[in-house]
Q: What sequence folds into this?
């Protein structure tokens, strides 16, 4: 385009010719439209499409852009006109000629066979418009379908369209109206052949003589690039000839061996010049194209379906029979393709044999989704007899339990287990896999549990190795409805059945679940059990169970609070899952990684990663529950209460039957907190009682870490202090003898909440600081900030009450000083330390992007500044004018996230009227029409406003002097070191931590609301 622009605009610029070649539909006409729209081309464009009218008259005295489309269709007069233009060009003339190379009368000569003398000053260039690459197809798909188009669907679209732009856009137009919110490869296949493509390929095929037409039919039957020899052999003689395979006849019972494939003797290829002439004819008409490997195929793979629809049925069967003979001789045998040809050729027994071979091969290579797709399509056919169905179903089930969700597989297995004619052991094996699918991939835990129990009973006597797998799956405690004691009993039964079986694979599966069970409730024995797994087993089935054990252990490590260990286990588990072919396990590990990032405060871009994960796993509710929960927690912290409620309990939330017990506790904790924020104390207390009853029924108390602090606060605020104390006591008893740094820190936090609720503020401050130190050591920055907020809040309340405790002061009684009247001494020191805690919490929340939390803490801090600090205006404080003030930014961000004026007023200790005024000013300054648009202030970068806000957060600490601020920071630091020592951290480690943590703002720790999903059961 640059050369054309210069030709049209620069004085004295010489003429230029650009020959643009490209196959049909690649976008040549679109390129001409873009050129015609160039600003430099205004008033200079002359366009015509060859074969559709007379060429336009062109003024040779002025600049001109001549666009000639489809010159391969030009008649002699049109060609003469173009050639004359190029023999006598004038300055500032640009000519662009497009053509289809495959349709030129003389290959390689778009302007005809006669030699052409170009003008002496004419610059001649050639440009080839090539098919789109995968990235361009993805860009087009997202433009039409949005983010709902899966990567697999994009890959399928690119493969089937050949990247031809016109075909891509035509298919996308169909998908826009037919596909759901999530476009899959199956949707791409169902879109069919675009009309324009079908008409093009059929018109080219119809114009061919009979032999050449059969060659095109053969290419459509093969469906892949083929050598000339294979293509001509499949095409055969025009009349079918003596060499054609006979029509399908009776086949013997059972499956034929792979050595014959159900096919007769190989057919001799159509030879001699006739065959070569037919192939040349198809190439000359562009019905076939040659690739770089000298193989031949249809120009667009998707066109094969349109061609096959026009082939008479008997001929089509004959061609598929010939194709099967060709593929049968290849080594290794392409069983999946062979199965397709046998089925289309009407040879049912050979088809089923090839399907079984293809599925077993795919499963052995870890391509479980390929095996599932092939077997689902096969078992859905009414042509499959009952004995063959029983033979193929176990192969399907074996891949399904380690693959991704498939409702069709569930339907197939459900039908099979209802067949009372099947042997008990066969039915039990199918029921085992059905139960695992229902629990893991589909999320129907109640139904899955029942199937697993029945399977264990059916298999115990005849197939102890399979019974052990069912029992060990029942031993995993993640699903609600049964206590830990029940799961432990099932594990004892599983170990006994495993010992009876003597099967190494089953023993590995049970061992992996035994380690997972121990770790799930905080039994440190689980780490030794995990190390004992056969990591280097040569059997890929054993390695898949080890991979599952590693990923489940990583999940437990996140929940327990062993974050460094979790990262190591995730890396090892993901690598082994990919290497051993366990896609379901791999997806669960990717969900765990999102939970780990939430817990450890790696929130930057986390919302986008979770949203992408939800899109990818939308049909797998058990796995997507992780990301959905994290999205709810992120929105809650940022003040997006509406989206938070949707992700936690609304249409986007994990359903109750999909939520594992620990995930259910986490969801409950977040919903209780949301109810507390909305001042719905009775509703919060009701949710707390229900959630805590579930914890008591399950008996796994490490899973209460994300629930207990909020449940205690809810009961206390609802006036049920005895109930709150019962939760604390039960939590403490449930953790005895177990190891969970996260739960232990949460227990201290819960005790701090109880102390605050019952008025023991001195104890509350101490407990909050101890909990904060424990969270900092993990690290969990969000929980660390929440506990710092609690310590600061209680410390300020002590100041307001005039209670100084260990600071050496005395409470104010009778005619004593009014609370808040003094600034010095113990009173001032207490206030300064409390404000330092709040300043740290505000910085930590701000670093995480927790806008609601940060605003709430800053409001508390402002409310407790000394009067002289409130009244003092700093010299040089900026006048904001048309920029947002810190308060306006704070209000605008919360309003943009969805909070009402009343909710913002409650958070910031303002009146609703004041909030309304701040919102109005922010909308005016930012030029927004709605409150929702105010969300942009989250990325609003006004340096003066940010500087003022930062100064405001630290205003009190700076005003009271560096010594007091340092003392407050040291108090926080010492408390953390004391707690670290109490938790078993060495004095040297604590000193090292202090050395690398010079001030509270550098302390790390994970956020509250950490979630866990359901690890794979088997």
A:
């Amino acid at each position: 385009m640059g050369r054309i622009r210069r030709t049209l605009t620069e004085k004295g610029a010489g003429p230029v010719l650009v020959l643009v070649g490209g196959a049909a539909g690649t976008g040549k006409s679109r390129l001409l439209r873009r050129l015609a729209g160039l600003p430099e081309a205004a008033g200079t464009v002359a366009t015509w499409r060859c074969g559709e009218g007379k060429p336009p008259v062109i003024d040779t005295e002025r600049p001109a852009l001549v666009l000639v489309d489809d010159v391969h269709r030009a008649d002699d007069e049109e060609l003469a006109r173009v050639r004359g233009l190029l023999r006598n060009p004038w300055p500032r003339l640009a000519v662009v000629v497009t053509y289809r190379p495959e349709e030129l009368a003389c290959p390689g000569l778009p302007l005809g066979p006669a030699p052409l003398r170009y003008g002496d000053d004419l610059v001649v260039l050639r440009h080839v418009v090539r098919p789109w690459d995968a990235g361009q197809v993805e860009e087009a798909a997202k433009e039409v379908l949005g983010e709902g188009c899966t990567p697999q669907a994009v890959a399928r679209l690119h493969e089937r369209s050949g990247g031809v732009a016109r075909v891509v856009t035509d298919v996308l137009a169909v998908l826009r109206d037919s596909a759901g919110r999530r476009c899959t490869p199956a949707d791409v296949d169902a879109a069919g052949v675009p009309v324009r493509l079908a008409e093009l390929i059929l018109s080219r095929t119809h114009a061919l003589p009979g032999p050449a037409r059969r060659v095109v039919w053969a290419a459509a039957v093969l469906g892949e690039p083929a050598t000339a020899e294979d293509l001509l052999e499949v095409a055969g003689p025009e009349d079918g000839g003596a060499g054609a395979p006979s029509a399908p006849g009776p086949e013997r019972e059972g499956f034929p061996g792979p050595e014959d494939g159900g096919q007769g003797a190989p057919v001799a290829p159509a030879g001699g010049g006739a065959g070569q002439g037919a192939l040349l004819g198809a190439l000359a008409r562009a019905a076939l194209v040659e690739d770089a490997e000298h193989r031949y195929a249809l120009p667009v793979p998707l066109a094969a379906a349109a061609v096959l629809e026009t082939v008479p049925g008997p001929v089509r069967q004959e061609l598929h029979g010939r194709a099967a003979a060709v593929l049968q001789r290849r080594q290794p045998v392409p069983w999946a393709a062979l199965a397709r040809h046998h089925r289309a050729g009407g040879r049912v027994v050979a088809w089923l044999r090839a399907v079984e071979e293809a599925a077993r091969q795919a499963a052995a290579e870890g391509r479980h989704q390929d095996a599932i797709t092939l077997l689902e399509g096969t078992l859905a056919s009414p042509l499959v007899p009952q004995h063959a169905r029983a033979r193929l179903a176990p192969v399907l089930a074996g891949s399904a339990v380690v693959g991704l969700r498939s409702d069709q597989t569930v339907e197939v297995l459900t039908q099979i287990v209802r067949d009372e004619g099947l042997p008990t052991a066969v039915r039990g094996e199918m029921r085992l896999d059905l139960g695992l699918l229902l629990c893991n991939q589909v999320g129907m835990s109640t139904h899955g549990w029942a199937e697993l129990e029945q399977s264990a009973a059916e298999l115990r006597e005849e197939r102890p190795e399979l019974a052990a797998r069912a029992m060990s799956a029942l031993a995993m405690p993640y699903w609600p409805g049964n206590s830990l004691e029940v799961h432990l009993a099932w594990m004892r039964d599983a170990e006994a059945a495993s010992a009876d079986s003597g099967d190494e694979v089953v023993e590995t599966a049970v061992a992996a679940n035994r380690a997972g069970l121990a770790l799930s409730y905080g039994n440190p024995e689980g780490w030794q059990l995990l190390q004992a797994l056969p990591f280097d087993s040569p059997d890929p089935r054993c390695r898949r169970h080890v991979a599952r054990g590693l990923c489940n252990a990583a999940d437990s490590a996140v929940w327990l609070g062993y974050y460094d260990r979790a990262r190591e286990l995730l890396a090892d588990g993901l690598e082994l899952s990919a290497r051993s072919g366990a896609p379901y396990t791999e997806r669960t590990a990717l969900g765990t990684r999102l939970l780990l990032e939430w817990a450890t405060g790696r929130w930057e871009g986390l919302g986008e990663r979770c949203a992408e994960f939800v899109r990818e796993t939308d049909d797998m509710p058990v796995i997507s529950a992780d990301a959905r929960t994290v999205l709810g927690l992120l929105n809650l912290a940022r003040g997006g209460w509406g989206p938070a409620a949707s992700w936690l309990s609304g249409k986007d939330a994990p359903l109750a039957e999909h939520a594992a017990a620990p995930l259910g506790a986490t969801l409950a904790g977040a919903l209780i907190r949301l109810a507390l924020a909305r001042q719905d104390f009775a509703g919060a207390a009701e949710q707390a009682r229900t959630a805590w009853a579930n914890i008591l029924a399950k008996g796994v108390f490490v899973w209460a870490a994300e629930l207990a602090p909020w449940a205690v606060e809810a009961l206390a605020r609802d006036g049920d202090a005895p109930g709150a104390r019962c939760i604390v006591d039960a939590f403490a008893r449930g953790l005895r003898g177990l190891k969970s740094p996260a739960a232990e820190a949460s227990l201290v936090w819960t005790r701090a909440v109880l102390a605050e609720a019952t008025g023991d503020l001195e104890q509350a401050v101490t407990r909050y600081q101890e909990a904060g130190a424990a969270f900092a050591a993990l690290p969990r920055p969000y929980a660390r900030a929440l506990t710092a907020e609690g310590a600061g809040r209680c410390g300020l309340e002590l100041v307001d009450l005039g209670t100084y405790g260990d600071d050496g002061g005395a409470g104010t009684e009778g005619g004593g000083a009014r609370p808040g009247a003094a600034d010095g001494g113990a009173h001032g020191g207490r206030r300064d330390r409390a404000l330092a805690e709040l300043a740290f919490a505000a910085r930590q929340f701000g670093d995480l992007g927790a806008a609601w939390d940060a605003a709430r803490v800053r409001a508390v801090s402002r409310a407790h500044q000394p009067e002289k600090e409130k009244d003092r205006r700093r010299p040089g404080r900026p006048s904001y004018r048309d920029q947002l003030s810190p308060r306006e930014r704070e209000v605008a961000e919360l309003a943009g996230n969805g909070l009402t004026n009343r909710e913002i007023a409650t958070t910031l200790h303002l009146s609703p009227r004041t909030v309304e005024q701040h919102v109005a000013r922010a909308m005016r300054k930012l030029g927004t029409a709605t409150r929702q648009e105010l969300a942009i202030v989250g990325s609003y970068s006004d340096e003066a406003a940010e500087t003022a806000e930062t100064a405001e957060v630290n205003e009190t600490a700076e005003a009271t002097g560096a010594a007091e601020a340092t003392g407050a920071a040291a108090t926080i630091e010492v408390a953390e070191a004391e707690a670290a020592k109490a938790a078993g951290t060495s004095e040297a480690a604590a000193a090292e931590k202090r050395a690398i943590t010079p001030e509270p703002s550098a302390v790390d720790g994970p956020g509250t609301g950490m979630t866990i999903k359901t690890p794979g059961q088997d």
